[in-house]
Recover the amino acids of this structure.
């Protein structure tokens, strides 16, 4: 017998409203009475969750605030104007270093939610000593990743992970079987050193690990309660709930360095998309490779989803004479209403719109670089070099669309597809 059937509806609703959004959503599938209690009283605010992509943030050298290319229409008004952060002492270059489900990690010590215009500074952690080799990063050999899922918890965590082997590492293999990682938790408001136990083998012998001499942008993905953080030639799958981690080698694709080159900005791009964790790479300026990480059989295996030469597609893609349908915003409301004729593309719609009429480019210049993945659709966003047109490549249909132009005075060094969130605690 289900004893909850004896409860008045108001009492049942009051019990259910105490659940986290994820478990509240699960509870709707248990019994019809529970679903009615959740739906009739609007307990699950789906519109507040980061379920819809609203645009792409760009990071450019010496830009005061990140340019933002937004898609129409928007379900919620989001401010692209970050000038209010000057109250926190940000009067110079503003650099986004990571993004997860609506929260931005800025300059390695500030958490910003653009949808709510709330922010919180991370407490100072003394280790390691500051590095002055790179203007963008204050820490030579470390990368901060943010992990946040409001459907599980309103709190977030920040992980401080080595990008390559530390100089004082003395063990024969890397990463070690027992790995000490410094983690910040918004629930405790402090950093702590936590030990994560490796499941499976190491990436390789310490002597074979090549340190990154140049600064690279290491992207992350958060999926199924695990953080996937990139190191130089592998990914660490970190599970915070049981303090374990696993090494996943990056997918391999053989090509001749003499004949083919990786696009200067792309490298291996990690991200979350429709089915889980994806990885993409551009070689020879136009060859796009897309992998999906299959974890279904207990093994971490990269499955090649697509290998395509984009050059013929770009040659047949008409060049638009307008900037739309997506619009760039820097110090204005992202929610600015677009013209009706610019509403061609909706990332939450499965239908692919037809390309617009215009002049075709028989010799597409410059190649492309990867901007990121759509979080819920198998779409890869690309930047057409030289013209700075943003493209959407649909993996299943192999169609490509011109979304708009991003205007910048400086070179793009990183990008983050953005999913606004109106929930969570900072």
């Amino acid at each position: 017998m289900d004893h909850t059937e004896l409860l008045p509806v108001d009492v049942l609703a009051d019990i259910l409203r105490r659940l986290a959004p994820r478990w509240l959503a699960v509870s709707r599938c248990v019994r019809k009475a529970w679903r009615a209690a959740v739906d009739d009283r609007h307990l699950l605010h789906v519109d507040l969750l980061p379920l819809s992509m609203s645009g792409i943030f760009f990071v450019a050298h010496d830009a005061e605030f990140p340019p933002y290319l937004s898609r129409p229409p928007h379900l919620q008004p989001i401010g692209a104007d970050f000038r209010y952060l000057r109250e926190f002492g940000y009067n110079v270059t503003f650099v986004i270093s990571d993004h997860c489900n609506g929260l931005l990690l800025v300059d390695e010590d500030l958490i910003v939610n653009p949808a709510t215009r709330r922010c919180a500074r991370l407490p100072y952690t003394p280790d390691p000593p500051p590095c002055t080799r790179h203007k963008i990063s204050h820490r030579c050999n470390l990368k901060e990743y943010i992990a946040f899922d409001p459907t599980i918890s309103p709190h977030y965590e920040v992980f401080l992970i080595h990008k390559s082997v530390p100089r004082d590492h003395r063990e024969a293999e890397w990463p070690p079987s027992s790995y000490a990682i410094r983690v910040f938790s918004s629930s405790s408001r402090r950093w702590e050193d936590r030990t994560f136990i490796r499941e499976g083998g190491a990436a390789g012998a310490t002597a074979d690990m090549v340190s990154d001499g140049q600064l690279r942008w290491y992207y992350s993905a958060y999926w199924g309660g695990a953080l996937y953080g990139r190191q130089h030639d592998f990914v660490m799958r970190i599970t915070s709930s049981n303090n374990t981690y696993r090494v996943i080698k990056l997918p391999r694709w053989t090509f001749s360095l003499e004949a083919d080159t990786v696009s200067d900005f792309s490298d291996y791009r990690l991200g979350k998309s429709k089915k889980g964790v994806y990885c993409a790479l551009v070689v020879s300026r136009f060859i796009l490779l897309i992998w999906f990480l299959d974890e279904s059989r207990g093994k971490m295996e990269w499955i090649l989803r697509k290998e395509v030469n984009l050059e013929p597609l770009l040659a047949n893609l008409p060049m638009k004479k307008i900037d739309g349908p997506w619009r760039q915003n820097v110090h204005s409301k992202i929610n600015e209403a677009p013209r009706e004729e610019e509403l061609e593309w909706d990332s939450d719609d499965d239908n692919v719109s037809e390309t617009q009429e215009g002049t075709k480019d028989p010799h597409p210049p410059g190649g492309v670089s990867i901007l990121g993945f759509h979080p819920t659709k198998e779409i890869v966003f690309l930047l057409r070099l030289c013209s700075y047109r943003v493209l959407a490549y649909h993996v299943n249909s192999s169609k490509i669309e011109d979304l708009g132009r991003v205007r910048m005075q400086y070179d793009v060094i990183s990008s983050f597809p953005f999913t606004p969130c109106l929930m969570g605690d900072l």
Q: What stands out?
A: Confidence is low (pLDDT under 50) at residues 128-138, 262-266, 332-344, 348-358. Residues 32-40 form the longest helix (9 residues).
